[in-house]
Amino acid sequence: MKKMEDYVRSIPDFPEPGIIFRDVTSVLQDADGLHMAIDKMQELLADTEFDVLAGAESRGFIFGMPIAYNLHKPFVLVRKKGKLPCETVEKEYDLEYGKATIEMHKDAIKPGQKVVLVDDLIATGGTMEAAAKLVEELGGEVVKIIFLMELAGLKGRERLKEYDVESVICYEGK
């Protein structure tokens, strides 16, 4: 029986020497791997009461949508700036080299809603920290943040220490 890690292609020295790139496309390209990824992520929510799932562009959409569908929950898009057509709230955050801005529709989260955030990978945690702050700005409560993979060496979990964070796979390095 294969483990989730068996579906993740590891590419050494990409994008620079000493880094091992964890490629999620190899999971998506294998029907069994994709099925296992969705099931394992959904299992992380077994004891979590929530109203809404929100996913970060773009792989958070890929993993979050089937979970929302399976659990009969609404799904909210967390997008890059300028991609949503209605009134939005936005949050700027730091990248390794520069800054980025994400947005949500202003009416996407109702006050008091319990929200789960979803993405494929936690590295430094900047995107999910910004997404959590947007949820809170709209009056929602982030009850859990889930990932398929975690790069523990980049300490993203520390950045998200005030939240319940879980990942299916944890890699010790960067």
TrEMBL record:
Homodimer. Residues 36-166 form the Phosphoribosyltransferase domain. InterPro entries: Ade_phspho_trans (IPR005764), PRTase-like (IPR029057), PRTase_dom (IPR000836), UPRTase/APRTase (IPR050054). Catalyzes a salvage reaction resulting in the formation of AMP, that is energically less costly than de novo synthesis. PANTHER family: ADENINE PHOSPHORIBOSYLTRANSFERASE. The lineage of its organism: Bacteria, Bacillati, Bacillota, Clostridia, Lachnospirales. NCBIfam families: apt, PRK02304.1-2, PRK02304.1-3, PRK02304.1-5. It is an enzyme of class 2 (transferase). Pathway: Purine metabolism; AMP biosynthesis via salvage pathway; AMP from adenine: step 1/1. Keywords: Cytoplasm, Glycosyltransferase, Purine salvage, Transferase. It holds the Pfam family Pribosyltran. One of its GO terms (molecular function) is adenine phosphoribosyltransferase activity. Its EC number is 2.4.2.7. This is Adenine phosphoribosyltransferase. It comes from the Bacteria. It is found in: Cytoplasm. It catalyses: AMP + diphosphate = 5-phospho-alpha-D-ribose 1-diphosphate + adenine.
